[in-house]
Amino acid sequence: MKNIGFLGAGAMTEAMIQGMITKEFIDRDRLFIMNRSNSDRLAELEEKYGVRTLQDVETLLKHSDVIVLAMKPVDAAYALESMEPFLTDQHVIISVLAGITTSYIEESIQPNIPILRAMPNTSAAIGYSATAIARGKYANQEHSSFTQQLFETIGTVVQVREEKLNAITGLSGSGPAYFYYMVECMEKAAILNGIDQETARHLIIQTITGAAKMLSETNNHATHLRERVTSPGGTTQAGLTVLEKYKYEEAITECITEAGKRSEELGKILERQSHL
Ligand SMILES: NC(=O)C1=CN([C@@H]2O[C@H](COP(=O)(O)OP(=O)(O)OC[C@H]3O[C@@H](n4cnc5c(N)ncnc54)[C@H](O)[C@@H]3O)[C@@H](O)[C@H]2O)C=CC1
Ligand SMILES: O=C(O)[C@@H]1CCC=N1
């Protein structure tokens, strides 16, 4: 059994540890978390999940076989630099950082350390992440399998080629936020139309959950399911016509494309800074 150390105690780390603990993938005392500065946050995670928290990178690396990079992409260069003196050929690194390539990480640290890049999402907290993983050049099948097993404790996993990961980040890494935004808009619209917030919230959540389950459990295509809701000349058609008028498809396409481009940009910014 391996020990897992997290650098970064933010939203994504919390979602991952919550999922792993709930699914009993690993004993709590095999999880080590460190943060750059916020000791209140570490105390909060320790209290909530019974995980072990640490203040310095040397101790974290000493205790961990697998290191999960979970700071903001902009903080990655400093994090890698601080890890470098304490890394050994026994470590495996898993990065969930948007946009940061495995080759950037490989070049920043001593050679031959296996790097896996993963893009989960925050639904990891309840075991519903959609995670995509790719391996860097020093990672082998065994490393991929371990990483897959790890992320399967917090949802589903697909293995992809690394060049797909920026687009996937825009799609499913950021994806939950698009649905939350839609729910926010639907709640506001419901209230505007005289429905109280509590009733609206219940109806919307059940509707979105039902639609997701129809997609996954009936295996029908979204187009077919949409058509079955849409009676000719009925209410749905009236609503969808407005979405078309406001270029809904174009908005969604641009949203996912831009998010993916931003992922690529985040990686490039760091690479440029490192070459300065
Ligand atoms: N939030 C999300 O939905 C997802 C986030 N990600 C990726 O996960 C990473 C973390 O995202 P969040 O948790 O949302 O960010 P966050 O801002 O909530 O947390 C990042 C944490 O890392 C800490 N940190 C910074 N430098 C550090 C260092 N050198 N050593 C240790 N800790 C350090 C910060 O103090 C902060 O608490 C990002 O790179 C993001 O691209 C990936 C998938 C989904
Ligand atoms: O917004 C972000 O940059 C991160 C990456 C995917 C989801 N959240």
Structure, explained:
With 276 residues, this protein is of the alpha/beta class. It has 12 helices and 8 strands. The protein has 2 domains: 4-161, NAD(P)-binding Rossmann-like Domain (Rossmann fold); 175-258, ProC C-terminal domain-like fold, CATH 1.10.3730. The protein has helices at residues 11-22, 39-49, 57-63, 76-83, 102-108, 141-152, 165-173, 175-192, 197-218, 222-229, 235-245, 248-275; strands at 4-7, 31-34, 52-54, 66-69, 92-95, 115-119, 129-135, 155-159. Strands 3-2-1-4-5-6-7-8 form an 8-stranded mixed sheet, sandwiched between helices. Strand 2, helix 2 (39-49) and strand 3 (52-54) form a beta-alpha-beta unit. The longest helix has 28 residues, at 248-275. It starts with a strand and ends with a helix. The mean pLDDT is 95. Bound molecules: 1,4-dihydronicotinamide adenine dinucleotide and (2S)-3,4-dihydro-2H-pyrrole-2-carboxylic acid. Pathway: Amino-acid biosynthesis; L-proline biosynthesis; L-proline from L-glutamate 5-semialdehyde: step 1/1. NADP(+) binds at residues 7-12, 70-73. This is Pyrroline-5-carboxylate reductase.
Give the topology.
Elements: E1 4-7, H1 11-22, E2 31-34, H2 39-49, E3 52-54, H3 57-63, E4 66-69, H4 76-83, E5 92-95, H5 102-108, E6 115-119, E7 129-135, H6 141-152, E8 155-159, H7 165-173, H8 175-192, H9 197-218, H10 222-229, H11 235-245, H12 248-275
Parallel strand pairs: 1-2, 1-4, 2-3, 4-5, 5-6, 7-8
Antiparallel strand pairs: 6-7
Helix pairs in contact: 7-12, 8-9
The structure holds 1,4-dihydronicotinamide adenine dinucleotide and (2S)-3,4-dihydro-2H-pyrrole-2-carboxylic acid.
